[in-house]
Design the sequence.
């Protein structure tokens, strides 16, 4: 059974940092395009960052220069380093895996709350 398990969420003051790991029980993890998404109450889910199999990355404009996505294929783990956090970053954060046909697998989410 495929599982993606996020952790590392919590409450932090504006300007602070958090690091979110996501452990994936995917047999061929290195072959998946991986991403981080977030959803705030009353808002649509948005993709925050993505990382391809070759390590190339993409970011939403709202987090460029502040967030860094990375992956450790030996540990089947995806990371999201979040610096200079803002109250508008408050949301539930999800990791997801795409085998090339869409975002097929999702984690249960971890809550990030940033206070001003």
Sequence:
């Amino acid at each position: 059974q495929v599982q993606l398990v996020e952790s590392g969420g919590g409450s932090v003051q504006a300007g602070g940092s958090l690091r979110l790991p996501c452990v994936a029980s995917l047999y061929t993890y290195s072959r998946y395009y991986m991403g981080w998404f977030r959803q705030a109450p009353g808002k649509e889910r948005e993709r925050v960052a993505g990382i391809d199999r070759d390590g190339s990355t993409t970011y939403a404009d709202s987090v460029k220069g502040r967030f860094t996505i990375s992956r450790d294929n030996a540990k089947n783990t995806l990371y999201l380093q979040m610096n200079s956090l803002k109250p508008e970053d408050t949301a539930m954060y999800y990791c997801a895996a795409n085998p090339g046909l869409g975002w097929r697998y999702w984690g249960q989410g971890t809550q990030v709350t940033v206070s001003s």
User: Anything to note?
Assistant: The mean pLDDT is 96. Residues 2 and 27 are 9 Å apart (CA to CA). DSSP finds no helices and eleven strands in the chain. The longest strand covers residues 91-98.
